[in-house]
Amino acid sequence: MSGAKDSPSNPLVSHPVNFGQYHLYPDQRLLLRNGTPVDLGSRAFDVLAVLIAHAGDVISTRDLVRLVWRGVVVDESCLRVHISALRKALCCSDADVCYIANIPGRGYSFIASITHLPLSSAPDATASKCLIGELPLRSRRMVGRNDAVSELIALIEKQRFVTLIGSGGMGKTCVAIAVAHDLASHFEGQILFLDFSQIQDSRLLVGTINSALGVQCNGSDPTQALIEHLSGKHILLVLDSCEHVIEGTSFLAENLIGHTTRAHILVACREPLRADGEHTYRLGPLDCPSSLMGLSAAQALKFSAVHLFVERVTQSDDLFALTDSNAPVVSHICRKLDGLALAIELAASQVAAYGLHKIADLLNDRFSLFWEGKRTALSRHQTLHALLDWSYVLLSATEASVLRRLSVLNGKFSLELAAQVASSPMDETMVIDALGRLVTKSLVLAEIVDQTMHYRLPYTTKAYALEKLSSNGEHEIAIERHANFLIARLERLYVPEEALPEHERIHRYIDELGNICTTLEWAFSKRDKLMIGIRLAAASAPLFLGLSLLDECRRWSLRALAAGGYEVESVSQKMGWQNSLFFSSIPTGKLEALRSSRSQSLIFDERRKSSLSPLRSFGDLITAHTKTGQDGEFREITSHGSSFNARITDPKEIAIIHWMAGSDCGLEGRLFSAGLGPASVEGASDLSLAHDYRIRALSSLARVLWLRGYPDQAAEIGREALERADRQRHPQTLCLSLIYVSTVFLWIGDWRAAEHSITKLTSTAMHHSIEPDHAVGLGLKGILLCGLGDVDAGMPLLRECLNVLSIENHQVLAPMFIRCLAEAFAATGEFDTALEILTGVLEMIENVGESFDTPEILRIVADLHATRPRPDLALAEQYLCRSLSCAGRQSSLAWELRAATSLARLRLMQGRRAEAGELLQSVYGRFTEGYDSTDLREAMRLLNSLH
After folding, report:
1. Are 404 and 471 a contacting pair, CB within 8 Å?
2. Is residue 223 part of a domain?
3. Are strands 263-269 and 100-103 parallel, antiparallel or unpaired?
4. What is the pLDDT of residues 499-525, one digit of tens each?
5. What one-character DSSP code corresponds to residue 129?
6. OmpR/PhoB-type domain: which residues (predicted)?
7. Boundary (domain end) residue, out of 94, 116, 138
8. Same structural domain for residues 322 and 274?
9. In this structure, how many other beta carbons lie within 10 angstroms of the beta carbon of residue 131?
10. Are 334 and 360 in contact (CB under 8 A)?
11. Of the candidates 223, 258, 282, which is a domain's last residue?
12. CB neighbours of 665 closer than 8 A, spacing ≥ 6?
């Protein structure tokens, strides 16, 4: 079962409940519809009682049968018969309510909102009398507001005067009516509900109430007459839609509460009345899943916004079902609409016409403001545009102007930014005052983050205000003011000599990302605003790099460099773009762009006699070439980079040259053993280098230590690298360290550590859209699964990984995945396919030279020849001897042990037992640690069998 409870134990609902037109009394086994008994069979009643007891949860058919029939063995088809009977019995006259949902492949769920009633309530206790006609029917469509109703009831009973506030379309009227119904018995039917939306003159308020109550004024003061009439009466006045007559409502409510003792008032309004004795209750949005949750359909349905959306869609499309695949789209729509009930209902009503995915796309268009709701709805609730018109016309000129100008901002913004964008020609004090009023009127949202107040326009309000901004001809002025503010703010980040500031400082600017990208798009789309785009691109490049937003950095750096005919302010600014383009191009392997950027950087920095930028470029060129596997040029780069040794004094420069030394896996063992390790770079600033070369050096050293025959030290250094990378929170560096160290864990055979680091790699790379690293994570997961014996699950991941790496020109790790894929084919008996794959790898080695894992490739080829159905032991021995020789040249004791183990087995098959033992012991005896690793345990088992 999917739901909040894995195995429901409470079989039936224990309290009376209300849902829609229905009241259920479990003790009497009675279901009433508008006071009339509904004929239900005994089993159907029990099914309903179980579903209501677990309302919102998905109950599997197996659990339903177990709870209803209690030990009696019945076929599940019997349950379907009773579910069908229930649905017919619960069918409403307008056929627009869904109470029981079928979750495909999971079970059933009671999805309507329920209200628990007192145990003492009797069937006739729910009837309510209203002083004028009928209190509007409780909405059968209310979702996710039970807690609000309960809290308001308690507040009204205690405080007498409560104002329910919230933005338009939030569901205030619906909640107020529900509260009135639940309080009907408490006030003995003395409830007056008045909708003030049609009253335009505050002077008519008292007369309207007097008329509804039948109060005769006879020439006296109507307010005093009303007070005298209500004196001593236990009554609830529900006053709805008061924002356009708010001053009159405030005066009236204050007088009634001050001069009566038992009268209670519930006001529904978009802002507080600010009257004496008033207590406010803000109605928030419906609950929405966050963008990072990745919920299943059953889990998503527990969020009230998703619940409402699904319920409304099924009213117009009974074939619609929430599934695991479309749940993320529905969640996105609900988030985009800020959990606003009316907006969700209007969007859901259009799914039958446009489809779910198209609805998600259309939310970015002002067209969605004109989607129509029910014909019977209030005129201001027919469309979102009409709803917002109702609020907009009530604003002062200053408030309306500020709201329009704030619409150019995306996401959260600060008070400082709001004042900058909206002030001209107004005074900043006026803007700040207007912003506060807009928050009070529920048109701007406010929240405290890290002890700082942030503001945001709801999606629907922003779309409406942006339309008004354009129609008033103010759009260009507002967005240009916004652009200049962003440039000034981002230039505080930029230090000409250092590409990036500290990580913590950068993260203070994350909320500005949406605004930056939108403003850059605007500037580069207009010929007369290109200079603004150029300045903003230069100022934002360090931020993009620091947050590993490489695509954005590369995109805007290219746009800035391509803006011909415009002189930049300084040579250093242009070089900043070159470096930004360079750094952001590394993961893609676009070497032509890298060479161009490097050559220009070198010319500039050689002229300034600086070594840091050239070393930075060399270090990142090494990254690019190691990813693309172009070893010839790689070695030329490392050689050139080493020529800077004489000028190196800065810890940052030392960090780069140390990492350079460790990046060539063919040379890294000798270089590190010569003393070029990471220990001396503690003083290097992490992000001023755009990448943390200290962490890269540690990650590389972990691999080196394993290759040299120190598995325990390799694991220890690898974990240290991961801890440092995790603290630094730089996605690019974290992914690289996870790739290196995950490989070490796989080599050692620490499957649990490997699984943990690989999972973190794939999630980090996916979250930050680093596609090559995500593909590597999939490949490593494939290796892990194959290592655990699940070849069928591992092979598709290896294939997907190799496909992406080929497209992305990310080739350095490809041989590792290719050889593992070949081993997987061999494990399934496809030896010819495996050998064919590895033959291609051997041809590549012949053409480009040995790589660090050439000994392992030769060993695997040998094992295939030795174990295939028609083995060629002589050829296998030749390959193993080559593997041993290659491992010796590279000083790779780890590969040497694997080759020696395979050769010992081969000689044992040939009857050469003594030679096998002598060979394996000579290699095994050179190890001083790592005896719990997979390779050493396997070698020891073989040695024991040979004695």
Report:
1. no
2. yes
3. unpaired
4. 444 555 565 666 677 788 888 888 888
5. -
6. 14-112
7. 116
8. no
9. 15
10. no
11. 282
12. 703, 707, 851, 852, 853
Does residue 634 belong to any structural domain of this protein?
A: no
Residue with tokens 């496809």: 830
Where residue 84 sits, what CATH number does that domain have? 1.10.10.10
pTM of the predicted protein model: 0.53
Residue for token pair 């909708």: 195
Residue 713 reports pLDDT greater than 50 = yes
With contact defined as beta carbons under 8 Å apart, do 333 and 362 qualify? no
Domain span including residue 378: 297-387
Instruction: Look at the chain and report how many structural domains it folds into.
Output: 4
- CA 819 to centroid of chain Cα atoms: 35
SS3 helix, strand, coil % of the chain, rounded to 5? Answer: 60, 5, 30
Check whether residue 86 and residue 35 sit in a common domain: yes
Residue 680 lies in a domain: no
CA distances from 25 to 116, 315, 373, 842 (A): 11, 27, 35, 78
Write the burial class of residue 12 (CB in 10 Å: 0-12 exposed, 13-18 middle, 19+ buried): middle
Q: Are both 143 and 259 inside the same structural domain?
A: yes
Q: Which residue has the tokens 């969700």?
A: 344
Instruction: Please tell me which residue, 84 or 264, carries the higher pLDDT value.
Output: 264
Sign of CA dihedral 413, 415, 420, 426: positive
- Pull the structure tokens for residue 517: 């990208």
* CA separation for the pair 93, 142 (Å, rounded): 17
Say whether both 194 and 223 belong to one domain. yes
Residues 307 and 378 in one domain: yes
pLDDT (0 to 100) of residue 629: 45
Residues 342, 232: one domain? no
Q: How far apart are CA 241 and CA 268, in angstroms?
A: 6
Which amino acid, 510?
Answer: I
CATH number at residue 917: 1.25.40
Question: What end-to-end distance do the CA atoms of the chain give, in Å?
Answer: 56
891: left (phi over 0), alpha (psi -120 to 50) or beta: left
Q: Is the pLDDT of residue 488 over 70?
A: yes
Q: Does one domain contain both 90 and 212?
A: no
Nearest to 693 by CA among 728, 643, 744: 728
Cα distance between residue 524 and residue 533, in whole Å = 6
- Report if residue 710 sits inside a domain: no
Distances (CA, A) of 860 to 400, 481, 839, 885: 73, 64, 11, 15
pLDDT at 606 over 50: no
Compute the distance between CA of residue 252 and CA of residue 239 in angstroms, rounded to an integer.
11
Q: Are residues 141 and 262 in the same domain?
A: yes
